[in-house]
Amino acid sequence: DGVTEVLAHRSDNLRDKFIEIPCSEDYDSHKRFAGCTPRKCGRGVTDAVITREEAERIRRIAERGLSLGGSDGGASILDLHSGALSLGKHFVNLYRYFGDKIQDIFTEEDFVLYRDVRQRIQQRIAQVFGISSSAMYLTKPTFFSRMNSTGAKTTHDEYWHPHVDKVTYGSFDYTSLLYLSDYSEDFGGGRFVFMDADSNKTVEPRAGRVSFFTSGSENLHRVEKVQWGTRFAITISFTCDPEHGIGDPLLG
């Protein structure tokens, strides 16, 4: 893998760390939106937006939802917006599959917390990149992930391949990850790796840590395979294109 630098150690408590990098040309092939499309690109890490206690509460939402299903492989997802839930080798729609029982699993407070956390992350990204928070829209997929060391059973389980979010999803302009568990305490492996030409730069997850970055080829990345334990995170993504915007999830 060549040279590896750690951008954020689990033991760090980072107020704000930001590294600016030149933007790729990926944004040129998409419609540009004034006040939002990245002109400044880069990546940031902060431990000052979401508290550990909030991260634990959010993780419990993920645990309750994922306890209803779960993949046969090492990666399970739960998308509260679309209702997508890993089940065996497939996905089911949580809301259709469980119907009114969903009220026994999630509470209104869960969805209020989820929305509040999403808004704070959105505001921090806007502030750091010097754009307008109101010009950014939540986009899909935005989802919880649970990863463990079980071998892959389908291509959905192969989360460790290098990829570029803008190329994979098209609508993404800014990507964020909120970590809900601690590297080396709750799980081994599973670090987030930015793959630069000269070196790899890793982020060690810790509960409440937010990692965020522009979604183009300037931020080619992958996640290391989880070696032991369970890694929880939530991916929250934003677009500048209102046509690709989605609303916050609603209970019922």
CATH architecture: Sandwich
- Overall domain count: 1
How far from one another are the termini?
47 Å
DSSP, total strands: 16
User: What is the averaged pLDDT score?
Assistant: 95
**Tally the helices: what do you get?**
5
Structural class, by secondary structure, is alpha+beta
Domain Fe2OG dioxygenase: 140-242
InterPro entries: OGFOD3, Oxoglu/Fe-dep_dioxygenase_dom, Pro_4_hyd_alph, Pro_4_hyd_alph_FE2OG_OXY
Cofactor: L-ascorbate
Protein name: OGFD3 protein
Task: Record keyword descriptors for this entry.
252 residues; alpha+beta; Jelly Rolls; four-stranded mixed β-sheet; 5 helices; 16 strands; 32% strand
What would you note in describing this structure?
The protein has 5 helices and 16 strands. The protein is globular. A hairpin with a 4-residue loop joins strand 11 (192-195) and strand 12 (200-203). The chain has helices at 52-66, 94-98, 102-105, 108-129, 165-169; strands at residues 4-8, 17-21, 41-46, 70-71, 75-78, 84-88, 90-93, 137-147, 174-179, 187-189, 192-195, 200-203, 210-214, 221-223, 226-229, 231-239. By secondary structure, the chain is an alpha+beta fold.
Structure, briefly:
The chain is of the alpha+beta class and 252 residues long.
Q: Would you spell out the secondary-structure blueprint of this structure?
A:
Layout: E1 4-8, E2 17-21, E3 41-46, H1 52-66, E4 70-71, E5 75-78, E6 84-88, E7 90-93, H2 94-98, H3 102-105, H4 108-129, E8 137-147, H5 165-169, E9 174-179, E10 187-189, E11 192-195, E12 200-203, E13 210-214, E14 221-223, E15 226-229, E16 231-239
Parallel strand pairs: 1-12, 4-6
Antiparallel strand pairs: 2-3, 3-13, 5-8, 6-7, 8-16, 9-13, 9-16, 10-15, 11-12, 11-14
Helix pairs in contact: 1-4
